[in-house]
Task: inverse folding
């Protein structure tokens, strides 16, 4: 290995050690009957092909739950194709949109879709039906794609298959049932935790964070969307003070990576605009497009030739939403970047960074003096 190559590796490793990294954040909980679960942080990738009218919905999420086995339900306007999707795409997009890090001395100054679990009386027999359109094992999920004639039939099916069911679930599902949407019911099994001592509290009473594997749903739709509606968690909690306190104290972040032919904006309703903000927007290079499609396990033709990324962040409140989020091309196509992160250091007391930068400058001078 050449001396110049060794210096480059040393400088790169040193700069990586002082880089500022923002966290990776991880829709729809439906625990077994009698258990409690709410949405936690959620990160999704939405890839929209405006020519084919095809949306690819890739999600990974975390939940807070007091049950070892629970699932969730995702509505879609058409029957989805279900497939495993690589987790690597999330890391790639996070790296693309991370803020630039600027180092300076302090001496310089300057400046929806889920189900709750409240109890309800046993439903009476109904003539309406739930039709199972597909059942498969995919990405570690037992997946069932359904369509229902009405909400009574849907909640009866949920009850019979050990999902949560309640008036809040029926209220949540009604707009989707009325529009003929399909429901993808998924069950997951969280990782087992170490057994607790006999004298300790039972494990079932502990609230655990659960991370799901990335799953892709691909479906036809006239407009790209994110199913933003959720059950009324306050109604689900009822008189349970612990669960109400959990809701009051909870904070969560919804992050959407929207990939399509241009910069997009999200719309809720005219009366209640969506609270999501654009934190990054720009065109991706051709190699980056290829890498993302590879990571997502999608064919070359699944994305527009010129692929743009719009990243949204939303401090998602725990309240009933009036609609789902629909996306349209934004009026402004300006690029957006996160503001740089300034890493300060004491120039007089800590010379390590100064020596590091001097080494980098020395490397550049060394390369310039070499004969062509």
Result:
């Amino acid at each position: 290995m050449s001396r110049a190559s060794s210096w480059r590796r040393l400088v790169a490793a040193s700069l990586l050690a002082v880089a500022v990294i923002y966290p990776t954040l991880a829709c729809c909980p439906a625990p077994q009957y009698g258990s409690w679960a709410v949405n936690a942080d959620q990160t999704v990738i939405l890839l929209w092909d405006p020519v084919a009218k095809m949306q690819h919905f890739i999600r990974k999420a975390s939940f807070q739950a007091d049950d070892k086995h629970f699932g969730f339900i995702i509505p879609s306007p058409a029957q989805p194709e279900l497939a495993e999707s690589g987790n690597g795409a999330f890391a790639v997009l996070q790296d693309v949109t991370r803020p630039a890090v600027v180092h300076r001395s302090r001496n310089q100054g300057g400046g929806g879709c889920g189900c709750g679990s409240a109890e309800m009386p046993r439903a009476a027999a109904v003539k309406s039906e739930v039709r199972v359109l597909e059942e498969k094992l995919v990405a570690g999920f037992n997946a069932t794609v359904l369509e229902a004639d009405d909400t009574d039939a849907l909640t009866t099916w949920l009850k019979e298959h050990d999902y949560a069911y309640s008036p809040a679930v029926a209220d949540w599902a009604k707009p989707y049932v009325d529009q003929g949407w399909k429901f993808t019911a998924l069950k997951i099994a969280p990782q087992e935790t170490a057994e607790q001592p006999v004298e300790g509290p039972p494990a079932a009473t502990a609230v655990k964070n659960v991370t799901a594997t990335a799953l892709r749903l691909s479906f036809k739709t006239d407009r790209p969307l994110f199913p933003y509606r959720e059950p009324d968690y306050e109604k689900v909690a009822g008189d349970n003070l612990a669960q109400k306190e959990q809701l009051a104290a909870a904070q969560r972040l919804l992050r959407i990576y929207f990939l399509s032919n241009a910069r997009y904006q999200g719309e809720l309703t005219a009366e209640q605009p969506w609270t999501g903000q654009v934190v990054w927007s720009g065109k991706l290079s051709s190699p980056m497009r290829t890498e993302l499609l590879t990571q997502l396990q999608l064919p070359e033709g699944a994305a527009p030739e010129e692929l743009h990324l719009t990243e949204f962040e939303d401090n998602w409140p725990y309240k009933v939403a009036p609609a789902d989020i629909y996306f349209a091309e934004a009026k402004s196509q300006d690029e957006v970047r996160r503001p740089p992160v300034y890493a300060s250091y004491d120039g007089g007391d800590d010379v390590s960074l100064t020596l590091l930068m001097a080494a980098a400058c020395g490397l550049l001078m060394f390369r310039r003096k070499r004969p062509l």
